Amino acid sequence: MKAVCIREPNGDLQIENRPRPSPRAGELLIRVRACGICHGDLMVQQGAFPFVQYPIVPGHEIAGSVEEIGSGVTGFKLGDRVGLSVLFSCCQSCPQCKQGAENLCPNWVWTGMMVNGGYAEFVIAKASYVTSLPPQLEYAEAAPLMCAGLTVYSGLKHSGYRKGDRVAVIALGGLGHLGVLYARAMGARVAVLSSTAEKEQEACRLGAELFINLKTGDAVRALQEWDGGANVILATAPNVESVSDTFPGLAADGTTVVLGVGVGRIQIDPVTMVMGRRHISGSPAGSRQELKETIRFAAEHDIRPHIKTFPLSRAAEAFEAVRNKQLPCRVVLVND
Predict the structure, then answer these.
(1) β-pairing verdict for 61-69 and 13-17
(2) pTM of the model
């Protein structure tokens, strides 16, 4: 099979021919139909994660079909449409796992980072970590929901969000536009904060009622004038300065949820935090149950990510387009 490999930190993406793997007990072999390119994949290539096991086949936004079934697996049949996220496995015994929050397990194993991922024609998955795909979602549409969609859904779910709340989304890129789509489908009033003035038209088209230009406007004042501030801020850009700068724009009891991981330190004025009982939280992807909810919610509410597809053979080109922010959408690798 063909697979795209990164052999070392800061190494190039190389297409290799490898033997097709076989599933062991409890595993599935998935024929990869589509795999999204995530910002986390860029960090794998850059050597930003100390736990990545090189050489590695990246990719954790995987949508495909069941090709082979290992012994002991029930509930799947050949040809079933399935998806796999970044959570390849967890310990299943720690307090977080027992509470259904496996994405917080201290002993997780991550797809495309610690085991080979979806930049390939086939990938191995543990059957209990795979979710079924509804027929309404095409493979290429479903792939970005495995991480980007899951991340914004889980972030909103744990933010204290209530229907009708005001949700401000920082940045309108591949992750941010999904934040707007999920928030709107959940019944939120939405604002978009962006340093790109040209994004205003897209923000309005997606259903945002307010657009704030981070370069030319006073974001905090604009948010506070938005009926008292945002109840939730989804920080989707890998930019810690925007998190620090917009935090005072939260309403009392509001929460900033950091989804995009960037370098530097978030700096919060403690008086602003204490006097408004404001909160800041991180949110890494989501649990297996939340992945099922994410996919089902997208199918039921007609949520479709904005995507551009590239064949697997052009993975390096697609990777650079994401790195250089050339495309305002999710990029998806597809196999014929």
Answers:
(1) unpaired
(2) 0.95
